[in-house]
Amino acid sequence: MAELPKRIKEEKRRKDEDLFKVVDSTIDSRTYFNLIQIARRLNIEQYLGAISSGKEARVYPARTYDGKYYAIKIYYTSTAQSKRAIKKYTIGDVRFEDIKVSNTRQLINTWAKKEFKNLTRLYEVGVRVPKPILVYENILVMEFIGEDGLRAPLLRELEDNEITQELYEDLIAQIKIMVGKAKLVHGDLSEYNVMVYNGQCYIIDVSQAIPLEHEEAEKLLRRDIENINNFFKSKGINIKPTDELLLELGFSGA
User: Fold this and answer.
1) pLDDT score, position 90
2) What is the three-state SS of the chain?
3) Highest mean pLDDT range out of 20-34, 102-116, 134-148?
4) What is the distance between the alpha carbons of residues 100 and 87, in angstroms, rounded to a whole number?
5) Are 130 and 204 in contact (CB under 8 A)?
6) φ, ψ at 167 (rounded to 5°)
7) Positive or negative: CA dihedral 153, 188, 177, 135
8) Angle of helix 29-42 versus helix 6-19 axis, rounded to 10
9) What is the band of 1 on the pLDDT scale with cuts at 50, 70, 90?
10) How much is the pTM?
11) Contacts from 8-15 at CB under 8 Å and sequence distance 24+?
12) What residues are annotated to the active site?
């Protein structure tokens, strides 16, 4: 392949640097390179500073040249903090039982693919989740829930007077679609991974979601419902008992 002239090389380098004016320096070189490839494919003008940070990943808004925003979730490739959980919910999932992983990077990439797959399955049956756009190695691109690069608040961030009966019932309806149509259990649902936008709940962080046939599905579904019930009950909202909801979802409730 012919080498680029020096002037074009310099212009290209400056454009790539412009992409990352606010993004932190913890991104490794391979992820940095992959972000450049994604920017070219999705017409992204700039990646902005992180809007959320967790034990397994950070999420950044990305603005396109035509003013659209994406949510870019970048999974850490150097941390071993959550490797045990990732193995548990990936290797134990029949959809991934044939996948071979020999190093941490492959494990993390598989985890990103699992979240993309879960998001796709949920989105297609009508669960309110960010629309999945693409996954590339440890990078997941999703619909941005919010406006002008400002994300919608999490359920836990709302004022007490914004926590309503309608919001509770909307979230329970989303759980019912998730279980009844997508045949998935979130597995880590709480006020920390539900966003509220235009008065409606959006479920996020679905990487650990497991199919109903998983041996821990009922146990994790019970925990999900109890987390949600405990939060809304603490805000004075009338809740439906966990066992009653489990029965409605086809579990014993015992």
Assistant:
1) 67
2) CCCCCHHHHHHHHHHHHHHCCCCCCCCCHHHHHHHHHHHHHHCEEEECCCCEECCCEEEEEEEECCCCEEEEEEECCCCCCCHHHHHHHHHCCHHHCCCCCCCHHHHHHHHHHHHHHHHHHHHHHCCCCCCEEEEECCEEEEECCEECCEECCEHHHCCHHHCCHHHHHHHHHHHHHHHHCCCEECCCCCCCCEEEECCEEEECCCCCCEECCCCCHHHHHHHHHHHHHHHHHHCCCCCCCHHHHHHHCCCCCC
3) 134-148
4) 11
5) yes
6) -65, -40
7) positive
8) 90
9) very low
10) 0.85
11) none
12) 188, 205
* 123 token code pair: 């989105």
Tokens coding 36: 């450049």
Angstrom distance (rounded) from CA 36 to CA 58: 17
Q: Any bridge partners for residue 146, and if so which?
A: 151
